[in-house]
């Protein structure tokens, strides 16, 4: 199976470097993408939109010779949701890492401070303690070294979805900083955060207890969770 890995805000394809070997050792092809505007710190990203990221991922899906699995971390969830909506018959499974499928009109985060059309990585003190779990001093330094400002509009543009066949796409949520039991409680209570997930006809929630960036803190375990989800895909 071809597995396309989509990073969240501030990260490029190289952020999946320690996850890819575990996926490929299981016999799959891993394709870690760098979204438009994340090619370098010097790239001009002021005009790049969320739809540009979706379109770039759809092009990767179209280039494959068979249906693919899409993996979206954090803000990459909206990109994966957009691609699954655009090509529901070409996505064998959508996997969301510490995130979930985004619904019509969903916004990644419009509260992050932006400068000149881009959003630099904020001080990590802006994140909640569970998100920072296992992110020790060395990994924090590595994260800061690899971080690239994200295009502002990728974070603030509303996602537009049109095809309800997206609800037919098998879906996995890998719960890291938010426990799976809490997500299930949210679903039972009709919480808006999981509204789109609850509409999926075939979904599962699997736990991988760590912080918000498991590709850094638990890459081997994350690869295993992705492979296990793919193995459950018919």
Automatic annotation (TrEMBL):
Signal peptide: none annotated. It comes from the Bacteria. Residues 3-225 form the AB hydrolase-1 domain. SUPFAM superfamilies: alpha/beta-Hydrolases. This is Esterase. One of its GO terms (molecular function) is catalytic activity.
